């Protein structure tokens, strides 16, 4: 325990230094007042919004779109920009952006507060202006108003525990809350005794029922002057119908590819995890064991997994004779019945996919829809501000009452981290030095027909172990990599030498990845001893040759790289053009074959690749990686099928995603039928480049990494909110590559209720401490003033978003975690107060109720 504490305070010191560094760096990036004087011709608008890379990204956008309308998404930016300028009139240049943001938040809260407190009776005007700030131009679309009561919905929501009032956006529990408890917040502020009385009442009520959860200034709900208003406009109903179509389309794609975790066989009750999960206190026993030099025998499952794992004990099922697989004429693998030769499922064709994609792109760039979505998002944020203002205290006291749990001992999963960068620099440095000192004569690499020892490699570099430092290693990405992904890729080479990367950071090399396995083992040990941290490591399959899968599986199984704190994702780099140039592949179909054929073979007959079968049990799904800011132009009006894709051009992002998706769909069906675990698609999306990537991912993927470009496409962001698509965000990584920390949209997403988590991406390049995930949380907490409750909520999101088996998740965040709302929340495990969960659930439910409601109106 004490050592953990030390490391935490260490971490904080280092982070404090880092913060200083960060803010200095940012000032330079941003054009602080000083910078402005130096460069007087920077446009004032850019300075005010602080969005200098805005222009840069717009250029990329415009370039990316070639023949498409050049104004593609830019109108949405205008909306946002206008709003920013509007609010920025009172900027004091001496404030930092964070302070300023805080003041703005505070302002917004007070405005919302005043509006509510002062004018409850002229509800129409107040509800319209309460979240639009002061003096903003009214838009074409008025916020949803309720229809006359004579229109009856086709179906009314049956299970809702709450009634929703569309005029006020107010939800009240159906076991109605008595007016005497609702206190005018303004009055409460004047008279503190009133507040105390309220707390007592609240306490009484919470003992009484679970339903009265949080306050949103219930004053509006009790206003009897509110009456139903005119029928909704045709425009509004049509917007809601389009939204509904988008939701249904995503559902169609997700259902057909079986990405819903509830349907994954590994999440069923009878799924056996081998080696079985550790029993409580396992680490304590394990440490003692180590001290006693393994003399004391202990229960088998209290060893680490790698010690217990025995390949011989694994059960490898036999072949499936009833089903077979074949590539169809669009180069997607289909599963067919062996007897009838008929296709067993209907995978959406590439034509369907591009039609759906284009339709959503069109909807997303439609002016009224952008304004509408932008307003819904603003409303969600304003609602959060009001909620937070009124319930902050209640939340804190609820989490204080919760014994034992705090942010440090809630489970958190690093849902986006690349394996070859999973160790920190100091760790890698120590490992390299250790190897030079202790095994200099080991033969490690073959270059130009010559086999070199480690000593010879370092001699050729003119380096000794003593010379090595973090500075010579030069793997940190902070200043020189901004908007230079190419430079960032080179940071994977220690000392800028690809030889060292080959020796130390590759799984498939002259020493069969032994060094990387050793260092991975050490990283696993660190994770296991921290107990509350888990990780999902991305590991590459390139699709260059067909034996990649078997080699990777053998690396994992032979080195016994198993841990209950770790699962794998397969990252597929989008590098067709490079393999094509190098003559490794003929057409894009070769990549599809190398990627998927072994997976279909092992599903048909696990005994054909036994190690791969075992490895795949720990694989969650697929990721698609590479520099998104590379331009992917539409070369063709209609894309050729993979076997015809023989040009040297790289297929676009959406094309890669479709072919992973379509093959995954067939594979998942077969695996589910056989009772094997199924896979999900969780690509990098919206880190840079074309926002269309986010729409492709919206259709095909279970969740995404990054998503920072959602800030530019309000409609797509709103869809991500409605579907609660997981977004693993890495602000520290963005800060070094594409977006400075202060401009990161994370806090806005979080307030609005998007399903976000924090993750590290590449600890080797971005972190300074031994606990990169905690570093990520603590920097975010410091800059954005996240409370303990916020951090616990993020941690809970990360567990839910992750691909660990339900058996483990139940242990980590509660047995009922799959249930909706507070029924699924176990504060004793998650440290998230019920009122927070209730707020999130009901806000989301409200949005869905509105969609259902307006879709049920006929004849408009
Ligand atoms: Zn990444």
From TrEMBL:
Pathway info: Purine metabolism; IMP biosynthesis via salvage pathway; IMP from AMP: step 1/1
Obligatory cofactor(s): Zn(2+)
Cellular component terms per the entry's GO annotation: cytosol
Enzyme's top EC category: hydrolase
GO MF terms held by the record: AMP deaminase activity; metal ion binding
UniProt region (Disordered), positions on chain: 115-160
Gene3D superfamilies from the UniProt entry: 4.10.800.20, Metal-dependent hydrolases
InterPro entries: A/AMP_deam_AS, AMPD, Metal_Hydrolase
Protein name in the entry: AMP deaminase
Low complexity: compositionally biased ranges: 117-140
EC number(s) on file: 3.5.4.6
Biological processes, Gene Ontology terms: AMP metabolic process; IMP salvage
Similarity field: Belongs to the metallo-dependent hydrolases superfamily. Adenosine and AMP deaminases family.
Keyword annotations from UniProtKB, A to Z: Hydrolase, Metal-binding, Nucleotide metabolism, Zinc
Pfam families to which the protein is assigned, alphabetical: AMP_deaminase (PF19326)
């Amino acid at each position: 325990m004490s050592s953990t504490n030390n490391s935490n305070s260490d971490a904080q010191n280092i982070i404090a230094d880092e913060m200083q560094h960060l803010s200095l760096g940012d000032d330079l990036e941003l054009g602080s007042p000083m910078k402005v004087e130096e460069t007087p011709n920077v446009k004032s608008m850019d300075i005010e919004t602080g969005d200098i890379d805005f222009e840069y990204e717009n250029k990329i956008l415009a370039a990316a779109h070639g023949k498409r309308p050049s104004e593609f998404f830019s109108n949405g930016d205008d909306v946002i920009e206008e709003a920013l300028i509007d609010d920025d009139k009172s900027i004091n240049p001496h404030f930092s952006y964070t302070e300023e943001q805080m003041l703005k938040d505070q302002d917004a809260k007070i405005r919302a507060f005043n509006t509510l407190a002062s004018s409850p009776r002229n509800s129409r005007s107040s509800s319209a202006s309460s979240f639009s700030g002061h003096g903003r131009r009214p838009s074409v679309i008025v916020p949803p108003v309720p229809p006359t009561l004579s229109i009856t919905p086709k179906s009314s929501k049956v299970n809702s525990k709450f009634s929703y009032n569309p005029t006020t956006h107010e939800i009240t529990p159906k076991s109605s809350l008595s007016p005497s408890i609702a206190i005018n917040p303004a009055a409460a502020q004047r008279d503190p005794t009133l507040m105390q009385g309220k707390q007592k009442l609240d306490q009484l009520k919470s003992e009484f029922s679970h339903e009265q959860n949080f306050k949103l200034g219930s004053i509006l709900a009790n206003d009897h002057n509110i009456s139903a208003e005119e029928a909704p406009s045709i425009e509004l109903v049509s917007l809601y119908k389009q939204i509904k179509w988008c939701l249904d389309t995503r559902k169609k794609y997700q259902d057909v590819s079986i990405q819903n975790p509830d349907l994954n066989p590994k999440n069923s009750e009878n799924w056996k995890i081998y080696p079985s999960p550790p029993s409580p206190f396992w680490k304590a026993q394990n440490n003692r064991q180590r001290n006693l030099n393994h003399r004391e025998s202990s229960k088998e499952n209290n060893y680490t997994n790698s010690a217990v794992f025995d390949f011989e004990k694994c059960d490898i099922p036999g072949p499936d004779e009833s089903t077979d697989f074949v590539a169809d004429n669009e180069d997607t693998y289909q599963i067919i019945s062996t007897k009838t030769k008929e296709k067993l499922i209907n995978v959406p064709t590439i034509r369907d996919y591009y039609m759906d994609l284009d339709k959503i792109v069109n909807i997303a760039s439609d002016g009224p829809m952008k304004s509408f979505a932008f307003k819904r998002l603003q409303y969600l944020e304003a609602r959060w501000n009001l909620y937070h203002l009124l319930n902050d205290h209640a939340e804190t006291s609820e989490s204080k009452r919760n014994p034992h749990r705090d942010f440090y001992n809630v489970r958190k999963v690093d849902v986006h981290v690349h394996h070859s960068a999973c160790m920190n620099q100091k760790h890698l440095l120590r490992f390299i030095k250790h190897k030079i000192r202790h095994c200099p004569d080991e033969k490690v690499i073959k270059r130009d027909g010559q086999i070199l020892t480690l000593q010879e490699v370092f001699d050729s570099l003119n380096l000794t172990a003593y010379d090595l430092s973090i500075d010579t290693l030069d793997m940190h990405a902070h200043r020189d990599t901004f908007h230079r992904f190419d430079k960032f890729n080179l940071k994977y080479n220690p000392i800028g030498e690809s030889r060292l990367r080959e020796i130390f950071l590759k799984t498939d090399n002259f020493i069969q990845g032994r060094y990387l396995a050793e260092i991975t083992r050490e990283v696993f040990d660190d994770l296991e001893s921290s107990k509350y941290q888990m990780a999902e490591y991305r590991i590459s399959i390139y699709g260059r040759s067909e034996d990649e899968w078997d080699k990777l599986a053998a690396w994992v199984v032979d080195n016994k790289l198993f841990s209950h704190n770790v699962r794998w994702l397969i990252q597929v780099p989008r590098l067709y053009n490079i393999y094509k140039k190098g003559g490794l592949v003929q057409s894009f179909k070769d990549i599809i074959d190398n990627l998927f054929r072994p997976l279909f073979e092992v599903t048909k007959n696990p005994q054909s690749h036994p190690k791969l079968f075992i490895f795949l049990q720990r694989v969650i799904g697929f990721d698609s990686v590479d520099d998104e800011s590379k331009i992917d132009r539409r070369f063709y009006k209609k894309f050729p099928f993979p076997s015809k894709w023989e040009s040297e051009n790289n297929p676009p992002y959406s094309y890669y995603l479709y072919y992973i998706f379509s093959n995954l769909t067939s594979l998942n069906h077969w695996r589910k039928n056989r009772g094997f675990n199924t896979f999900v698609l969780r690509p990098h999306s919206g880190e840079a480049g074309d926002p269309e990537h986010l729409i492709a991912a919206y259709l095909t993927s279970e969740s995404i990494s990054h998503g920072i470009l959602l800030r530019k496409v309000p409609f797509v962001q709103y869809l991500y909110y409605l579907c609660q698509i997981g977004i693993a965000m890495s602000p520290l990584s963005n800060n070094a590559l594409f977006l400075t920390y202060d401009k990161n949209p994370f806090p806005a997403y979080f307030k609005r209720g998007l399903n976000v988590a924090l993750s590290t991406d590449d600890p080797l390049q971005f972190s300074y401490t031994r606990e990169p995930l905690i570093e990520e949380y603590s920097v975010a907490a410091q800059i954005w003033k996240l409370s303990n409750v916020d951090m616990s909520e993020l941690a809970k999101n990360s567990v839910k978003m992750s691909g660990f088996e339900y058996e483990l998740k139940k242990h980590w965040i509660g047995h009922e975690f799959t249930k909706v709302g507070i029924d699924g929340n176990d504060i004793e495990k998650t440290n998230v107060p019920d009122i927070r969960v209730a707020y999130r659930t009901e806000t989301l439910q409200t949005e869905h109720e509105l969609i259902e409601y307006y879709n049920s109106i006929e004849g408009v």
